[in-house]
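Section: Multi-chain targets

For targets with more than one molecule, the full set of components is provided together so that the structure can be written out for the assembly as a whole rather than chain by chain. Components appear in the order listed by the source. The example entry contains two components.
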Amino acid sequence: MRSPIRMRYVLLAAVAAVVFGVAVHQLIGGGRQEPPKIVVAVKALDEIEFWRVLIDGVHTASREFNAEVSVIGPPKEVDVDRQIELIEAAIPDKPDAIVMAASDYHRLVPVAQKIHRAGIPLIMIDSAVQGNYAKALIATDNFDAGQKAGKELAALLPPKAQVAIVSYVQGASTQIEREQGVRSILNGRAGTEIVGTYFSEGMEERAYEITMRLLKERPDLDGIVGLNEPSTVGAGRAIRELGLTGQVKLVGFDSSIKEVKLLEEGVIQSIIVQKPFNIGYLGVKTALSVLEGDKVPDKVYTDSVVIHKSNMYTEENQKLLFPFVEE
Amino acid sequence: MRPAARIKSIQSRIAGSFVMLVLFTALLLIFISYPLSESAVRETAENYTSELINQVNANIETYITGMKDMSLAAMNNPNVREYLVAGGELEPEELAKLKRKISDYFHAILVSRKDIASIHIFGYNGTFISDRMDAELNPNILPQDQDWYLQAQAHKGQAVISSSHVQPVVKDEYRWVVSLSRELSGADPDKGIGVLLIDLNFKVINDMLSKLDLGNRGYVFVIDKEGRIVYHPQQQLLYSNLKTEQLEQVLQDTQGGFVVNEDGGSRIYSIKDTDFGWKIVGVFYENELVDNKRQMQRSFAIAGMLCLGVGVLLSFLLSRNLTRPIKRLQETMAEVEKGNFDIRVPVGHSKEISSLARSFNVMVLKVKELMNQIVVEQEVKRKSELNALQAQINPHFLYNTLDSIIWMAESKKHDEVILMTSALARLFRASLSKGREMIPIATEIEHITSYLSIQQMRYQDKIRFTLDVDPSLYPYVTLKVLLQPLVENAIYHGIKNKQGPGSIAISGELKGDRIMLRVADDGIGMDSDKLSKLLTAPGKGRSKTSVGIANVHQRIQLYFGPDYGLSYESEPGAGTTVTVTIPALRAEELAGREEIPS
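Its structure, encoded as tokens over all components, is:
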């Protein structure tokens, strides 16, 4: 009789222990689900406002959808090797997804392959790599943006006009698409001749020098399209310096204080501004959708906006031109 | 146990009832407490949000009130008035001096107020004063075109608060600010002399609002009375339509909040109006409450399961504990059913069961006593029956003997008559034996001797008898009239049907603790079939002697036990030997053993 009684107490004690344990576990919140871990690899961390705004969008999305995001990237956009290193170091940690803005269309291919092989869903933002490794690409429709620039300029040009394109890095996919967009409009305009595309290597000084020479060589030039920020600013400075403000029409890309000033001065007539905040936000959101098992479109184009002096201080455009990035 | 039996068992019934009870209680508690907790969570969230936006409101009002106070101070500053009204008439030197005085005054204010970005005055006479002497106007921007300038003019001396915007009027500065502007009036109250602009550093509002915690996704935004967004954490998303905000509804709301239902769940808006026309709006997602809800559901479910588990376990233990003594009782009963009356149920702890067990034990004891009594009574009954049967043998024999005596008397054989009659008398005396059932072997020998002499006279030379019993056996006891039926059987079935004379030998010997009495004849014998039927209970149509044989066997076994009795050996044509085995008991040992007086 004695031993069964003891057995019973042991049993009761065990049950009580289990109840207590579960209760404590529950109180501490052990039942909570871990937020997904996402690595966002950008081209540059804080050198360029574009990326700061994009990262802001990333953080907004991570807060809204409860994801654990870590942003990695080299200090400067040209440091492709560093970006490759950083991403390769992130792969063994097995994040739930990787969102990547490839700083080079070709050199990042092995990295994309590695991510693909590791079974980590890859979302590309802003610029892609060659091949088909990503679940989705979220970027500005650069061809469309180029067309917008082309239309802006076309509206400002005299019936017979000569136009030059100041581009940045030869072979960069975004550059090619933008140029194609510009050309698709201007080539269809009767009487307009595109005198050539000049590459600034993404450097303002280079663009300035190129434009100076170009304007001196071709005094009859009517318009210039700058395909990115340094190219536009460089071209604008040259126009201003030569006293050609308003005479040579300039349509540019992206935004910066320098561009804003040139716009206010009337050196630049229009700029085409991307929405980096949206790209960052949608990049994370799309990654989470993929993790949820939802079907996502393989290409999502974010909008670009045409800004000129008259609309630069509207409610909507202020935020794009003067990004208010949380520090 | 079969399933049906299992379901019907007390244990499973008790356990089942307990489980149902626990389940019912747990469900009841969950159904009562869950909605309560749910509404409590919701209420807490709503209270928290409204408290939060009240706090935000208080903070923002502090900033705005500060700006208003500052604008009044600036407006009433005599230097400012002098500069703006009489500016054109003063010497340039004095003018510069005055300007410096004002600028220093503004600068002093600014040093104490980190939230104020800048103070400017734009005189209608073309003058411009800043808190910084080196500040230059942006040559590409006309202050007169700015919204805050136009609004100040339109409101005639009233302070106007702008929405958040980039302030481009100062060269090389593009700050995000909230502007307070107001038209300064001169001697003629209807005629303005310039516009005062105080810019609040928007970063202070942004920092304050972006740090607010309204769950993971909840946020606070601010709109002005025209519905323009002063602050929104996801302003970019709004402009690109990745997100929509219920601005119209917020503007029209007077209730302090509303709920918007969307595909992805509802957003709950909590709205606070400010004195200067802004609306501060707290938004939280019902989904997050649902997350809490899910967690709550999970907790409730787990708690319920635990309750149930513990309930099941306890009910199992409890019911087993309760039914265990009953089971033991049941098992004991089964044992008793099988005939084991020596078993006792242990008396348990609970009152009912222990009294039941005690009663059961008493009952088993009683039953055992009664059974014993029945056995004894049955024995007595059998013995008396057998005695009655045995008594029937004698009249039959008596009839034959008397017949012989009559026959001898008719033949005038007086000596034989005397001899036979006296033998008969001796025989009856021996068989009476003072009514005792057990008699010394000596008496039995006397009895059988008398019987043999009567038979000898009747059958003359046809039968020879030999009697060879060791006189040392005489003091031992035997049942009376054992041998007579055996001898009778030997005569009637063994020798009578045999050609020529036969002989019967009666012998006795002591073998260990047993006495063997033997009656051997050389009659016709028996086959094994007949032999086997001899000792079984007498069937129909059997002769009386057979009845007698079976009776003898049964009587021996009845008195001395199954180890004793008769055994026959026979061969057809060669005779039959019957052995009586009885225990060797002396008369004095028997005293008190004989339970039944005849």
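The interface with chain A takes residues 138, 140-141, 163, 165-166, 168, 172, 174, 176, 202, 206, 210, 216-217, 228-229, 233-237, 239-240, 242, 295, 298-299, 302, 306, 309-310, 313, 317, 321 of chain B (CB under 8 Å).
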